[in-house]
Specification:
Elements lengths: L1 H19 L3 E3 L2 H25 L1 H6 L4 H16 L3 E3 L2 H21 L9
Antiparallel strand pairs: 1-2
Helix pairs in contact: 1-2, 1-5, 2-4, 4-5
């Protein structure tokens, strides 16, 4: 159930970002939900491979290259999902940063306290 709610939260974030961020366009709830699911799949399958390939660059930039990697995953998702478009790297970087922050907040709010070590 938490996973489905996570997708809804990320979809809502896509919709809110499309209202306030010029260059990010989402045509409705269905493309936003599809984008949330596809982004999760892309982050689970493609991102680890690219992370390993670009690890020296990530180390050299002290982790800042991960922002570009997240933006690239968002642009790849926009390429796959009809109804979602991202115009430009600046928009992609900012949107990926906001989506990452929302995802981290969601995970910290919904973590299972019984799994924590004392």
């Amino acid at each position: 159930m938490r996973t489905l709610l996570h997708f809804v939260v990320i979809a809502a974030t896509f919709l809110v970002l499309s209202r306030f961020l010029p260059g990010l366009h989402v045509t409705g709830w269905v493309p936003a939900l599809l984008a949330a699911v596809i982004l999760a799949i892309v982050n689970a399958v493609v991102r680890p491979i690219l992370f390993l390939i670009t690890l020296p660059l990530t180390i050299l930039t002290l982790g800042l290259f991960l922002l570009l990697l997240n933006a690239l995953m968002l642009m790849f998702t926009a390429w796959i999902v009809p109804g979602l478009s991202v115009n430009g790297w600046g928009t992609a970087i900012f949107a990926a940063l906001i989506l990452s922050i929302v995802g981290m907040m969601w995970k910290s709010l919904t973590r299972d306290e019984s799994l924590r070590l004392a």
